[in-house]
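Hey, resending since the last one bounced:
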Amino acid sequence: MERVDENSWGTMKPATFRDMGDRRALRDIRNLVGAPSYACAVKKTGLTDNGSSDDKNPTFVARLPVTRNFAATVASKSQPDQQGSSAQHDRFGNESHCKPPAPSMSSSSCPDSSSAVDVDDYSLSNDIASPMVEEKEEMDNSNLREVEMEDLVIETIPDIDGCDLDNPLAVVEYVEDIYTFYRKTEVTSCVRPDYMPHQFDINEKMRAILIDWLIEVHYKFELMDETLFLTANIIDRFLASQTVVRKKLQLVGVTAMFLACKYEEVSVPVVEDLILICDRAYTKEELLEMERLIINTLQFNMSVATPYVFMRRFLKAADSDKKLELLSFFIIELCLVEYKMLEFRPSLLAAAAIYTAQCSLRGFRYWTKTCELHTTYSEDQLLECSRLMVDFHHKAGVGKLTGVHRKYSTFKYGCAAKAEPALFLLNASL
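The structure tokens again:
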């Protein structure tokens, strides 16, 4: 066997090619790693894909894929002056992963050849390195590492906004920015939980009676949920800044609802209707004067992050149904009546209400990674607030302030008030 100078990548000239006359020796067969096309075993003439002779299809290329792992291994180990050898290594070292071998080439397909040449007759010289044991082991280990990485798949968080891509009202493009803004500004909408001692003529119990009564008024007027939460926020922010005598407290309440209706409702109740529900204890002029006082005290700031805006987002993250939604709102409205709940942020109140409702319906502690991601609150962070909510739920049907319980005991609200409270949370450890 003598070496062919043109085949610089080190193959030996086959015995059948010694007397080829003017026939050109094989050159690059385009099996180099990184070549634009797949590796080619041999270029044949007059063969179709099924191996039959076809004069109209003079060229047939047997394509053999280069596996990704082995190509990367060869490329990392090859030197610049050994690219041809590495490519040949790639071609012959992966026969077990290749397609069936190309059909043999007969003398009829080679016009210049007098004898038949079979692809299987090609052999490698000792100069061409075959896959070593270490390389095979490295390839196997690489494959194992890939499998292990595929097995260790981290739990993916579902896209809760994917179903609303075609809904312009959902503003999917901006919803995350909107709630980032809400979280930054919710502190300004919070009220100091110690403002009541500065009131000389009213107390926490009077505030609770007012809110409980306004919940019934809100229900009778069939107003939007946003209106109720904004009404409570306006009352607390005003009382934290202005002292009010006892006989004017109801006027503050109905005026706050009047302002909230102007901000949230499409159809606003007329002033005469509000005077009527107060049993004509106030005049129209007094209500309009109180409206001016409240709006100037709050500096016309009606855009605040109430628990309602967070409730809608967090319920979506919890993949809620109607039953969970109604029970969550029942619990959060119980919190509106309680003065002590002012110490919690609106976002925390919303998350804790949904968590408490889920525990109540399921009978065990339940808080998913999706809920934790979108609320930014872990289960342990919600537990303190949730225990208070469980206590409110347990006592909602007793006592004098039962407006929320009566509202959510109707079929319109799914009789959510009759759900069993999650009493096991009272004994849960942090």
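The two ends are 82 Å apart (CA to CA).

Sorry for the duplicate.
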